[in-house]
Each structure stands twice: as structure tokens, then as C-alpha cells.
Design goal:
Largest sheet: none
Order of helices and strands: HHHHHHH
Number of strands: 0
Distance between the termini: 55 Å
Radius of gyration: 16 Å
Number of helices: 7
Helix content: 55-70%
């Protein structure tokens, strides 16, 4: 009985995990190149280097409010896309891309 409760607790916890746990930096790079690069007019290396990894994490807290606000102001052409709730899944991946290649990461994306 105790084992069954433990198994159910583990399954319930796994079911409640955020979709951010499934985000992927490689997908984020692809989404950035397809959707945001034309609007931001910069390659992925310059985009990711705008902030440190910790700064990117902060910008993407609260469903990306800080990121959406900052980049909507800097790039008004991107505002509609950034504010569209249907794009939140893509932004999760872009978040991972930005964190993976943040200015203090030492990593350089291949989309330079």
C-alpha cells in the first residue's frame, strides 16, 4: 500500500511539472532564427549575448513578462508575436537558447 502511494505521488508530481522542463535550446535556436531574427535584425549570437544567463532567467520569469516588455519596446515589429499567448511554448525554447548562450556562458551558437 505504501509503495502504491509513493508511485502515485511520483506520477502526480511528474504530471504537474512545468512545460519549461521540456524546453530545448536547439529548438529555441530554430524558433529564434525563424520568428525573431527577421524582426530583431540580429543573429543568434548577438541576441543571446545581450544578457547573462541569470539575467535571461529573470527576464523569462512570470511567463516571460520582462522579456516580452523589453523586446517589444526595443523591436515594435515583434510586439504582436511576442504578446501572442500561442507563442509561449516557442518562447520556452527561446528562453533555453538564450540561457545556454548567454554572455557569460562561454558557449557560441552555430547560428553566429
Amino acid at each position: 500500500m505504501k509503495t502504491l502511494k509513493t508511485v502515485l505521488a511520483v506520477l502526480a508530481t511528474a504530471a504537474l511539472m512545468s512545460s519549461a522542463a521540456y524546453a530545448d535550446a536547439a529548438k529555441g535556436q530554430k524558433y529564434y532564427l525563424k520568428h525573431l531574427k527577421p524582426k530583431f535584425q540580429m543573429n543568434g549570437t548577438k541576441f543571446a549575448a545581450q544578457h547573462t544567463q541569470d539575467e535571461w532567467e529573470e527576464l523569462f520569469e512570470e511567463k516571460g513578462e520582462g522579456f516580452i516588455q523589453e523586446f517589444s519596446e526595443k523591436y515594435p515589429k515583434a510586439k504582436m508575436w511576442l504578446e501572442n499567448p500561442d507563442n509561449w511554448g516557442k518562447l520556452q525554447h527561446i528562453r533555453d537558447f538564450a540561457i545556454e548562450y548567454g554572455s557569460d556562458s562561454g558557449n557560441v551558437p552555430s547560428c553566429g
